[in-house]
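Hello K.,

You asked for the raw outputs rather than the summary table, so here they are, unedited. I folded two proteins back to back in the same session to keep the settings identical. This is the first:
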Amino acid sequence: MRAVVFAPILDARAGRSRRESSLSPSAGAADRTPQARLEEAVGLAAAIDLDIRASGIVPVPQPKPATLFGSGKVEELAGLVRMEDADLVIVDHPLTPVQQRNLETAWQAKVLDRTGLILEIFGERARTREGRLQVELAHLVYQKSRLVRSWTHLERQRGGFGFLGGPGETQIETDRRLLSERITKIQNELEHVRQTRTLHRKSRQRVPYPAVALVGYTNAGKSTLFNTLTGAEVLAQDILFATLDPTIRALQLPNGSKSVLSDTVGFISDLPTTLVAAFRATLEEVQEADLILHVRDISDGASASQRADVNAVLADLGINADEEPDRVLEVWNKADLLDPDALEHARNEAARHGAILVSAVSGEGLEALLAEIETRLNRRRQTLQIEVQPQEGALSNWIYENCEVISRADLGEGVVSLRIRVAPEKRDKLARVAGASRLQAAVE
């Protein structure tokens, strides 16, 4: 499909109210340069294989309620759309239903705003049943908000009988009712999925390995890093939103410790609230993680703004990155794309900010990253030594199910000495099951 992309740049004072009332406000989006915003919009369009015929930055001194752009600008852009024979116009800004309808009329082409475009990408990328349900829910919530006299057929009266709609019910009321019914059905199905995911998470928690979650701006290299660290084969491409469905794999740490690592959906500036809500079950993996790795594309000039965007979404999930430095570790990825001077500067800055500079492609910094992950995870988990008698099978079984057994030594006559690592929340239970006097701090 032939498309053109417009990135409206609102006057700072005019745009402030819109940003403050945005579906997902972020400080980072406001700091990004107009050119960077345009490049990201073009990247989003390219993510669903659109044929981008033209793109441009469009200053908007004063947003118009009917069309966003002024009448003269609408006519000027209409000429460009006709010249490029475009079927689709992407406006990298939220549009009201009225603005979308009026622009489609003026340009004689389908119009998608930023939210609609992201929804299209998510719809194409989702693979699992849960992912498809989440995307469909977000689509329906978005469509329901569009049912405000957007199309002339919605004003028609229709008759009806039984449950198909009472006499005189308008088409818009029928459409809204059908959407509401479908939304309710999907929400019920997702609640079942959420309960199942909770059971799976509790099952993993019984296996005493801490959880690590990868988060970051879309296309920061999370999936490539995930594959490199775990040996998995998750789709990793240089496109936005290559990963939607979460994947969890075991992660072996340098000194024998183990953890589970999850790869999650990428974040983006002005991520629609409908998507944040729809993917909340998936994002619970982040909320429950013992350690969060915030992967940043340090080669991207907008990396600082992207950091603010990711932290804003984390804050929506109840995670304050600045107040929980031990739980959130920044991983500065794509070091292989930096020239020597920039690489040296990045190394110094990473050291100053407590970040780890890596390249998921070349392997640089990965040993240091794994060591830091292990250090941070073990910081919360106490290492103990306990001797277990041969008749204490129940105790031995409990330890293996709830603690990480680092080493085992046979002392003779069936007695074994276990060196274990225990999470803080299970320390008291272990003391009750085994007897506090038997637990000895292990010598590291």
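The second followed immediately with the same parameters:
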Amino acid sequence: MRPRNALPSTSPSPGRLRRTLRRAGAAARTLRPRSLREAADATAYVGLVAAVVVAGYLQGGMTVVVAVPTVLGLGLGSIVVVQAVMACFTVSGMFGCSALALFGQRAVETTDRRPATGPTVTAVVPVHRDAEVLDRSVESLLDGHYEDLRVVVVAEPDDGASIERAREYAAREERVEVLVNTRYPGSKAGAVNYAAEVTDSEHLAVFDADERVDPRFVSSAVARLDDCDVVQGRTVPEPDGLVETVAYYESVVLGDLSQRLLTLVTDFTMAASRTVVMRRSAFEAVDGYDPEMLTEDYAFAFDCYEADLDVVELLSQTSTIEGAHSVADWWGQRKRWMTGYAQTLHDLLTECRSPRNYRTLLAPLLCAGSVFGNVFMLSLVSKAAVLVVSGAATWLALPVATLAGAALALRVSDARRGRVGGVGLGWLATPLVLPLYSLVGIRAAVAYLFTWDGEWYSVAKGV
């Protein structure tokens, strides 16, 4: 067993250091007039999207010489292809290998150890205007296989409906407790931190209010914590509508597949703020979640990475959440996520001025891949246009088949495990997810630079 990794008491944690550095320069953004920032924001976004599309088209039409083995294997020959064809091979190879790695990881995953009892697990469920969906998380946790589980619902002081609903559960369920977040109100991170401060269990877990937790997940995670610090589960949106189906396949492609190979190479594994069980010592080693971060889970993942905590994924037991129910909610939610990614990148770059280890230097590069990878994804659209115009559109079948095939395989797997209903035909449109998401990502990055003032977007639930 690897020894537990915790930062020395004399050394500031990654989270504490980052928060100190951020506060030192936070006021600069507000000095510029709002109207000028909005104009610059719109101009920069349109200009950047246009530049990416044009550059992608011009680059896609350029030719490149590729060395290939001769038919008899006696040497190397060469062929000339356009770069748009090479992009097809790149996308197909990346997602194809990622799919093989994912299914291989799921195949060798051992989940036979599922104790019914053991160390107490405090399952924190932060809620904000979630009264209509709270039953999903609370009831699925109580129905799970792990008995030594305590559910702590943390509500915001101004959310009377959620407080009342949570108290109804607490009145009839001995294992449910309600906290009103009067100590750190205003954020999910603050709610989780509050619950951690007033409880003393050996293990902490965090779940979203609208999450249907796999009944085996907590017990399997507790067993895995014998050999690691944090266990992260898999979560997918329920594909029960058009927008919800888009959200599901987006999660499959950009969540399950896109960073799979990178995780294998760098050992960076996402530790989020839902479907996660961790040792209390790990949570305390990074000072918990950062209330000032728009995407507290993404920042938390990098805090764990820099603190050298051992994070493992549990992929075979999938939980489900509500997907966005409208296009506006889909766009707003993703823009919030990607703005948070840009904020996290800003913090990581700032922290690089005082590197502590190689992970401090590697972390910004990994984060930058999430932020600037959207430029690459958008450029694929114009590269596809090159192939159509040049009469070589058949090459597009390669990446389309790879993306759609991987999405179909995961949908069939989820359906067989009873996590989603049926298969449908939505997987055929999976390749469209990449350019749509890239537009949101570029919009969020530009907005972070020019107009973002800390505003928060909240989607409708229980609709």
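DSSP finds 15 helices and nine strands in the chain.

Happy to rerun anything if the numbers look odd on your end.

Regards,
P.
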